[in-house]
Amino acid sequence: MIKRESDLCLFVLDTNVLMHDPTALFRFKEHDIYLPMVVLEELDAGKKGLSEVARNVRQVSRFLDQLMSDADRDEIEAGLPIHPLSDYGRGFTEPPTGRLFFQTERPAQPVARTLPGTTADNDILGTALELQRLEQRPEQAPEQAPEQAPAQAPERSIVIVSKDINLRIKAAVLGIAAEDYSNDQVLDDVNLLYTGMATLPDDFWEHNAKEVDAWKEEGRTFYRISGPDVTDWYVNECLHLEGDEAFEAVVRDKRSETEAVIELAEDYRVQRHNVWGITARNREQNFALNMLMDPDLDFVTLLGSAGTGKTLLALAAGLAQVLDRGRYREIIMTRVTVPVGEDIGFLPGTEEEKMTPWMGALMDNLEVLTQTEGGDWGRAATNDLVRNRIRISSLNFMRGRTFLHKYIILDEAQNLTAKQMKTLITRAGPGTKIVCLGNIAQIDTPYLTETTSGLTYVVDRFKDWEHSGHITLRRGERSRLADFASGAL
């Protein structure tokens, strides 16, 4: 929702807003919405296909059809009341009270023809300029002027809402207010995103020594801690203490606002605790392996830049739990193919063979994980064993499926929208674990940003759930060359 506190607005929507979020029609509270005719034409042109954008366009058309149900020409001219439809009425803290207007006449001044650039954008700009001109026209006495439609009420501001930066720039040049659509923005600043880790103060034990109970259970060490420090902790948040008395633990339970149970973290840095031959190289990787190897966590998210070890750690933990411990039946590896949701055809072979060109990261990490003794024959045997328990799937065919006792790795998750992320996570059946990997600084999907990415969305929404974990990996471990390049270039 775009907030305006000073006055009511008439928001002129660009097509990409509706393609991005079909429910945008219901997100403007008391403000009115105006749809230029070119927007309806672009929606009609984009309705065909199996992509996520095409599905969104069809959903918008259904919404408009329901809102226009049984409306005559006079009602359309006066503006259709916007009300949340039955299936989408849930989740609205403030039901919309504005009206929906359609362009029914050509602008008196054909501004679009005189502007450079694409015709569709210029039509929207021309329509906004015409509305602005009507707003600025002095109001005539009722006996001298015909009754005006609510869309031309003089107290309303005209604002273009678009995900297209260039259109917003052109609007600013022409003196038209323009804003981005930010209803799906999870956070105001990506730096506020939950990192999954907190540093304890140096005097933590001095302040809490009297309020600590410690015990061991099945080889695991637990502490019950009470005090004000507990207030800001989340379940499964990673805690660490710097200095000579290094301490690493995971919050396991919050019994109240001031009491929590924490567990001493397993140390996966030592070789005897390796996971499929892989040991952690830093604190964040150690916490990541603790989460990946925890059967009580059904959903784990790993954020980090290139070279921090996200894919390698997730694969190693998956192989250890599929082949060694038998917790899951197989690993399913998938990733977003950009453009998202488009057909992966034009490549020969099965679904898995078509996805192979997108799975370079998987193949590279498998080379590391299958470096066993025994020469070429031993490596080939290990390779066959591993590949038989890993399946590569396309996101295109996830709808309607249910995965039972699977270990699912979703790579490049930052390129998914919140809606796509929900579609994928709800595929999980009993005994399935989902691991989402991504770097929100490298988003390739149009109109997604660090604060609106589906990966950011799930990190923020799952931080309170007791069966999920998150950690942000900060230190690159690929090589000294890659580490230096990340900081210097």
From TrEMBL:
Compositionally skewed regions (Low complexity) per UniProt: 141-154
Q: Name one GO molecular function term.
A: ATP binding
One GO cellular-component annotation of the UniProt record comes to:
cytosol
Cross-referenced InterPro entries: P-loop_NTPase, PhoH, PhoH2-like, PIN-like_dom_sf, PIN_dom
Q: Which domain of life is it from?
A: Bacteria
Annotated keywords:
ATP-binding, Nucleotide-binding
Pfam families in alphabetical order: PhoH, PIN_4
In this chain, the stretch annotated as Disordered covers 135-154
- PIN domain residues are 9-169
| Recorded family membership | In the N-terminal section; belongs to the PINc/VapC protein family. Belongs to the PhoH family.
Q: What is this protein called?
A: Phosphate starvation-inducible protein PhoH
> In which organism is this protein found?
Halochromatium glycolicum
Lineage, uppermost ranks: Bacteria, Pseudomonadati, Pseudomonadota, Gammaproteobacteria, Chromatiales
